[in-house]
Amino acid sequence: LTPAELVNLTADAIEADRTTNAYISFDREAALRAAAAADVSSPLAGVPIAVKDNISILGQPTRCASRLLSPYTAPYDATSVRLLKKAGGIPLGRTNMDEFAMGASGENSAYGVTRNPNASDHIPGGSSSGSAAAVAARTAIAALGSDTGGSIRQPAGHCGIVGLKPTYGRVSRYGLVAFASSLDQIGPMAQTVEDAAILLQAISGHDPKDSTSADQPVPDFEAALGKDIKGLKVGIPAEYFTSGNHAGVSEAVRNTVSQLESLGAELVEIRLPHADAVVAAYYIIACAEASSNLSRFDGVRYGQRAQDVNGLMELFSRTREEGFGPEVKRRIILGTYVLSSGYYDAYYSRAQKVRSLVARDFAEAFKKADIIVGPTSPAPAPKIGDSALDHLQTYLADIYTIPANLAGLPAISVPCGSVKEGGAELPIGFQMTAPHFREDLLLKTGFALG
Ligand code: GLN
């Protein structure tokens, strides 16, 4: 297949898909132009890659699935997109998401809910809902997502695909619209571990344009694939194997742990004593950073501007009132509150202390274990509409994905079976976490699991 044929096949599949709403938009002509220029000897050789709507693509809309940014077009490429193009990949389409990456269901989008291709009345997870749904529905070969508290891994788990959040600093955040800058990472979502490795290879590396980008060598990720995992020490945290997990999830995860054992891995018990505090700490830190990051959306510099206003203050407030959806407003209010004088010490600075303790727990655990495993989420994908009823419950379901973001560690979700629910077959994700810059271990183990 030529790059142009691949682009056309993908674009036809996107047009034929009437179910998932995975794409907010896609530009066949732009992709065909890129295909004509693609170097077929390069690693991605003209493969179209779907890109989440919060990662800038030169000349294309970058709306973060928000009404506020509906008229906005990115004037430059994110570094990850630039590298993707350099490796011969073709960014195709803007995938649906929870507005500004806030959410875990794909329902908080100004462009309609995304549906799980495995069961269309269930959520695909989020916030990278469209990237996950597109890869699972095969309307994308692979995709880029972003992960602040689980937004690559959780939808990957719910949709039955592979999703990897790299080490903080591994992939440049330049051109990613910031949600919580100290937690955000761009990463690959793919049908196979091998594809995830190829995509990660393409987008990794130091970038002077992102001050938090790490000046670390990028290993050959594909070289890690196919190696055996004999003697690999697999950490089993008691805190992740509780009766609070859905029975089907527990069973699928236990089976995968046995599979690791039969491949020669050694199981070691570890403890993550602050696991019960991570959700609270994360939502304080993430909302605090979001309230600051989103202050730039004032109607003057970007996107939509409120009309017929009296003065600047009304321009700011009406633009934000009309432009942001309810979840984004909830987070800005919460973030402003925890940062306000009088509450800062009680909330924000305590959350930062918890964050240090979580990082220390992992450092301790990695003295005994090479990787740490468990479920990606405590339960399979809920039905559309269910999570709208209870925000706190939705936040709590991030319990297993948040720790890697707080500690800046790489983590992957790989498919590990499914559970039957109401006639639907709902995929389960198996999560593995590794020490900083050891994505190779995650890919090697994920590949070994097949
Ligand atoms: N579900 C989490 C949240 O709503 C994670 C989001 C993300 O990783 N972008 O904040």
Automatic annotation (TrEMBL):
Keywords: ATP-binding, Ligase, Nucleotide-binding, Protein biosynthesis
UniProt xrefs under Gene3D superfamilies: Amidase signature (AS) domain
Enzyme class: ligase
Active site: K52 (charge relay system), S127 (charge relay system), S151 (acyl-ester intermediate)
Coiled coil region boundaries: none
Swiss-Prot/TrEMBL catalytic activity: L-glutamyl-tRNA(Gln) + L-glutamine + ATP + H2O = L-glutaminyl-tRNA(Gln) + L-glutamate + ADP + phosphate + H(+)
Domain Amidase as annotated: residue spans: 5-443
EC number(s) recorded for this UniProt protein: 6.3.5.7
Subunit structure: Heterotrimer of A, B and C subunits.
Biological function: Allows the formation of correctly charged Gln-tRNA(Gln) through the transamidation of misacylated Glu-tRNA(Gln) in organisms which lack glutaminyl-tRNA synthetase. The reaction takes place in the presence of glutamine and ATP through an activated gamma-phospho-Glu-tRNA(Gln).
Family: Belongs to the amidase family. GatA subfamily.
Record's protein name: Glutamyl-tRNA(Gln) amidotransferase subunit A
Organism annotation: Akkermansia biwaensis
